[in-house]
Amino acid sequence: MYGCEAWTISKQTQKKLEATEMWFLRRMLRISWTAKKTNDTVIEEAHTTRLLISKIRKRQATFFGHVMRREKLENLVTTGMLEGKRSKGKQREKLIEGLADWLKAGKSLEAIEATKDRKKWRTMIANAVKQGT
């Protein structure tokens, strides 16, 4: 989990993390891969619901809020508002886009504006964690 605040989590990466988490749960509960148990059954046995992704996203959101309130060079780098040309091909997913999607903030600009008000930002994070998305 060290340094997860700076990760960019795409849909493919999220699926891999969830699969790895499920593999860990099955190993810890000593459920054989030949046993015909669904993932929902395994989660019920473990009494957890997608803790890994939720924990990573929460740490990313708190770190992002901290960086955005400082309004220094890190702010410019994180928002991607630097001069220069964009690279060719499919553009990489930005941290803010992933967080805005997780927080259900709509556009990334709405999430950036929400970071200015610390109380509002914390409630947005808390609501997203409660929803478990």
TrEMBL record:
Whether Hydrolase counts among this entry's keywords is yes
Q: Which UniProt keywords apply?
A: Endonuclease, Hydrolase, Nuclease
GO molecular-function annotation terms? endonuclease activity
This protein's source sits in the domain of life called Eukaryota
| PANTHER family named among the record's database cross-references | REVERSE TRANSCRIPTASE DOMAIN-CONTAINING PROTEIN
Q: What is this protein called?
A: Endonuclease-reverse transcriptase
Species source reads Plakobranchus ocellatus
Q: What is the lineage of its organism?
A: Eukaryota, Metazoa, Spiralia, Lophotrochozoa, Mollusca
